[in-house]
Amino acid sequence: MKDLLHPRHRAALDRFLGEGARRPVLLAFDYDGVLAPIVKDPAGARMRPSTRTLLARVAGLYPVAVVSGRAWRDTHRFVGDVVPTVVGNHGFELGHPVPVPARVLRTVRGWRRQLEAALEGVPGVHFEDKRSTLAIHYGLTRSWRRSEHAVYEAANQLAGTRLIPGKKVLNVLPHDFPSKGDAVRALLARLGCDAALYAGDDVTDEDAFAVGEPLVFGVHVGSGRTLAPWCLRAQEDVDALLERLVEARAGARPRRAAGRAR
Ligand SMILES: O=P(O)(O)OC[C@H]1O[C@H](O[C@H]2O[C@H](CO)[C@@H](O)[C@H](O)[C@H]2O)[C@H](O)[C@@H](O)[C@@H]1O
After folding, report:
1. Would you say 195 and 17 are in contact if contact means Cβ atoms under 8 Å apart?
2. From residue 183, how far is each of 46, 94, 163, 248 by CA, in Å?
């Protein structure tokens, strides 16, 4: 993985954006851990004001989408005022809330009941019910590793799932659900774009990175194994990436509100 912001790699982003940064590209960002720092309480995951300002500028210059594992409504609450396209539930809610088929609702409710029974009394576990998928959070106590073990044991008993690990969370999806990779392909076609820069930090984002070049210019945020060829060293660096994107298309250097200078 090469640091996209290192001066040595400056030309890579320019090449992706094309002559005069005029190539029709989509900029797609994951929410948690990319646009917003990871915090203990999912309800409190907010973008820094500097990120919000820069993201709004970027969205005025390029097609922009936020592709999240959260429910569409939840994600839209955080970014809907600055970003026109929001994708929720790991790719299932493509640009708008999608009615959940009764069969899926029944299945997901059944999983929740089964998990609640199996995990009763396990400290720090809480469910984020996104109707078509579930997230089991287990990072709230010091002994979270023991809770993690119990969560995986319980989830492995469920039928028909795709389990996607995350940051102190296990995502439980119907096995035949679309992925973030499917969502990026669909958005490219819908928005008439040649390729997407996709920035993500988590296992669920690997589906988008797996699409690979020439369609996806993958940027992994933080350390760890990934299919993305590029990285940002830390979540704080997202502001510098957004600045570069503004600078490339608007030709002006935006005023920095905060974050690391490069
Ligand atoms: O695809 P994403 O937008 O990155 O969604 C992945 C999961 O993000 C959220 O959980 C993560 O962020 C929380 C807030 O920082 C943190 O408390 C939690 O430990 C992280 O796993 C979200 O709550 C989940 O539903 C998403 O699946």
Report:
1. no
2. 23, 7, 18, 26
Range of the domain at 200: 2-92+179-250
Residues 48 and 144 in one domain: no
Q: Is 91 in the pocket of ligand 1 (CB under 6 A)?
A: no
257 in a structural domain: no
pLDDT, position 52: 98
Q: Does residue 27 belong to any structural domain of this protein?
A: yes
Q: In this structure, which residue's CA is closest to atom 20 in ligand 1?
A: 167
144 CB near ligand 1 (under 6 Å):
no
85 Cα to the center of ligand 1, angstroms: 19
**From the CA of 54, how far away is ligand 1's center (Å)?**
22
| CA 8 to centroid of ligand 1, rounded, Å | 32
CA–centroid distance, residue 69 to ligand 1 (Å): 7
162: domain CATH number is: 3.30.70.1020
pLDDT tens readout for residues 50-87: 999 999 999 999 999 999 999 999 999 999 999 999 99
Atom of ligand 1 nearest to the CA of 128: 25
Residue by residue, DSSP assigns 67-124 as E-SS-HHHHHHHHTTT-SEEEEGGGTEESS--PPPHHHHHHHHHHHHHHHHHTTT-TT
Q: How far apart are CA 62 and CA 162, in angstroms?
A: 33
- One-letter-per-residue 3-state SS of 1-60: CEECCCHHHHHHHHHHHCHHHCCCEEEEECCECCCECCCCCHHHCCCCHHHHHHHHHHHC
Peptide bond into 7 cis (omega under 30): no
Q: Is 148 in the pocket of ligand 1 (CB under 6 A)?
A: no
Q: Residue 261: pLDDT band by 50, 70, 90 thresholds?
A: very low
**Mean pLDDT of the region 167-191:** 97
